[in-house]
Amino acid sequence: MTTPVRVLIVDDSPTMRGLISSILLKDKEIEVVGEAGDPYEAREAIKALSPDVVTLDVEMPRMSGLDFLDRIMRLRPTPVIMVSSLTHRGADESIRALEAGAVDCVAKPVPGRAGGLDQLPAKVKAAARAKLWRHQSPVPQAPAAMPSTYQPGRRLVMIGSSTGGVEALSAVLGGLPANCPPVVVAQHMPESFLSNLAQRLDNRFAPKIAIATHGAPLVPGHVYLAPGGNQHLEVSDTRPWTCVVREGAPVNGYCPSVERLFRSGVTAEPKRIVAVMLTGMGRDGADAMLALRQAGATTFGQDEATSLIYGMPKAAFEAGAVERQLPLGRMAAAILETTNQENSGKN
């Protein structure tokens, strides 16, 4: 970046504001231009300072973080990163904030758990480049009725996503029918947030969506999200496919890692796999996606125009891993066209 990213920190705790500020100021490409203790102070600070990015506490006095986020998005659209506790309420409201237009979220540290503030500088710089119009686009809902000829056959869909993944996953999974092929997902997100995400997606869309468990069979009509924490999701290399949940260190800085998920597909009958790279920063999964394509898998990448952050899809595309780039609104249809037993000729 040619000039520092200007950040406003909004949190009712002076201690937390100081901690966030100290972490951000370690990065020379970031400038903390102000702090606010509640949304009313923040409103005036945004008017006076015009920050590039706002970090916003989910639970705030006088006005909830969600309500204030809604006002920001309507009146003065600015990239917002939510800073949340690891409680069930904090996680649920963080997912709701991402659906409402926040760019990303991080977890506050608590005794015995580091949280995600170490990732905040990178997220702030990515947020400064984010496309804010995206949340205004309607998310496709599951088709009311799929053609009677659609049969998923013996196919498997793998999806990797990161920043912007809540919207992207909603768009893709919302376009799949109840008899879709089994889908496995590695979404970069704190462990406690992932369970809330799975529940919210399951309540909204036709497939059954849940956190993956070790040994669970991969069956049509089900979507399995990597559990996160210190656990990666892979698939078994023998049929019938099952979920393989393994403990491990972060890969490319992430757990769950798209690289680990996609790499497992290389030995799991790759010609029957459709791999999809959605929005996100960094290049997690690009190398494994290339290996999948070289082994015969079908590979799709989200295009730049519809990606909140064109990092992971770009890295995969530039590596030669992406067979077709598609806008987000076309991704579900492309998956169905590819996996339709009648069209593919595979069973």
From TrEMBL:
Signal sequence, renumbered to the chain: none
Claim: Cytoplasm is one of the keywords in the record: yes
Enzyme class, first EC level, given as a word: hydrolase
One Pfam family matching this protein: CheB_methylest
Record's keyword terms, sorted: Chemotaxis, Cytoplasm, Hydrolase, Phosphoprotein
Gene3D superfamilies cross-referenced by the UniProt entry: 3.40.50.2300, Methylesterase CheB, C-terminal domain
Subcellular localization(s) per the UniProt record: Cytoplasm
Record's comment on post-translational modification: Phosphorylated by CheA. Phosphorylation of the N-terminal regulatory domain activates the methylesterase activity.
Active site: S162, H188, D284
Xref: InterPro entries: CheB-like, CheB_C, CheY-like_superfamily, Sig_transdc_resp-reg_Me-estase, Sig_transdc_resp-reg_receiver
Residue(s) carrying 4-aspartylphosphate: D57
SUPFAM superfamilies: CheY-like, Methylesterase CheB, C-terminal domain
Role according to the record: Involved in chemotaxis. Part of a chemotaxis signal transduction system that modulates chemotaxis in response to various stimuli. Catalyzes the demethylation of specific methylglutamate residues introduced into the chemoreceptors (methyl-accepting chemotaxis proteins or MCP) by CheR. Also mediates the irreversible deamidation of specific glutamine residues to glutamic acid.
Domain remark from Swiss-Prot or TrEMBL: Contains a C-terminal catalytic domain, and an N-terminal region which modulates catalytic activity.
Membership in a protein family: Belongs to the CheB family.
HAMAP family: CheB_chemtxs
Official protein name in the record: Protein-glutamate methylesterase/protein-glutamine glutaminase
Species for this entry: Mesorhizobium liriopis
The encoding gene: cheB
